[in-house]
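batch job 7 of whatever, protein = Probable protein kinase UbiB
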Amino acid sequence: MKPNDIFRLYHILRTFLIYGIDEALPRNRYTRPLRCWRKTLFWLRNRHQGKPLGERLRLALQELGPVWIKLGQMLSTRRDLFPPEIADELALLQDQVAPFDGKQARALIEQALGGKLETWFTEFDENALASASIAQVHTAKFNSTQQFAGKDVVIKVLRPDIQPQIDADLSWMYKLAGWIPRLSAEGHRLRATEVIREYEKTLRDELDLRTEAANAVTLRNNFLDSPMLYIPQMYADFCHQNVIVMERIYGIPVSDIDALERNGTDMKLLAERGVQVFFTQVFRDSFFHADMHPGNIFVNPQHPENPQYIGIDCGIVGKLNDNDKRYLAESFVAFFNRDYRRVAQMHINAGWTPEDTDIDEFEQAFREVCEPIFAKPLSEISFGQVLMNLFNVAREFNMQVQPQLVLLQKTLLYIEGLGRQLYPQLDLWDTAKPFLQNWLNEQMGVKAFAHKMQAKLPYFTEHLADFPEKLLDALNQQKLISRQLREINKKLARQQRWQKKGLTLLIGSIVFLGTLWQFATLPIGLSAVLFFVAFALWALGFLLP
């Protein structure tokens, strides 16, 4: 272990102790040494005793730096693991850190592009437009030699030496996570190592900006010419592992309600379109932007009567398969119909819970958790909370929730909060129901059959010319198989006949020899009968075909 690693561990522990995070640990024989170490080795006291645990945890993560801030942001979405008072505080974590030097940013960009910035750009601003934990962005403009001459752009560049910092912090996160299950029985429920593994995957995806560029291209193509959502253009020739160049957008931050209202924005339509964009991504495209917090969403100031969202920062996306979409659609429809039996049966049929799950007990568990939600009007019910309740019940019956569904739940909570902030009277169920019902209708009945046949039509067309030849081959193969089966049946029949002959002769021999052995002690009449039986069995054995 290097000295820097030891110093980093000391800094992590010291920060947690100063904010009193250790006070959340249970008092038992496993944690007693930790409390002793606090008093004997660290001599540190909780300097924030008047603040609730959630706030202290948020402040501690902020002090530990960008990797821990992003961990806190991810944990804020795991409301299945943490109580609301902690999850709500973690959701306040802001991914804003001081920018690194603009001259260093210029050097990194030029190294990635392979030449001076002036070769392609003009008006490069060394003052960062925005700075986050993983990267920062600078503004520029294509020069007159380029295809997009005069176009305003944003250049995003990874922070220098971010990789070693992430590796070091992740290493300690795994070590600390490994200790959590040992501290209490409740620690196993948190599945800390699994959470860190999920976080690492997300974090490492963000370290390759080409992934963000590819995601943005996909989302842009999915909503090309759409009045609901606009994704800035990526300039593929300038996209590298640590640098990407994209179109600069000018919009009103979606959180700036006053500015939107001053611009005359149709707030009701804007809120409804947020829900429509989400469900379109989920059910039409199976590919959704999974980091749609207010900092990544803007509104096009043009045509406020027909408002259009602008989405940026596509580093985190979710992908769904048909099982995921069926789970989401059927869960919501069954929930709003109060058909908890259907919800339970769906989990078992999908193979997400064991086949031997007690369906009656499963149904009752869903009923007990979901039924109180209907005390609210339908228009006020939170889809994200419903999904979280379904996850929590299913987990008690040994269902492991898929990461893509957790991402979806987080995004859904963002969309709901945003929609009701823009237009408090938004009826989410009324807006979402057509998407859910239409998708289910497309999966069943004549329409679904026609859709599947249409999807397979190119395959059928391609192989139609080969069909007669393949049919003849199949018929010939069938004849060959039939002939081979007849030969096998004949052999089996012969083997069975010889087995019958042998068994009959063997029994006759045993009767004959037994009678001969005991002839002196047996009555003469019985001996005669037994000899007759033995000769009869021999005769039968020889006469069998």
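notes: The two ends are 85 Å apart (CA to CA).
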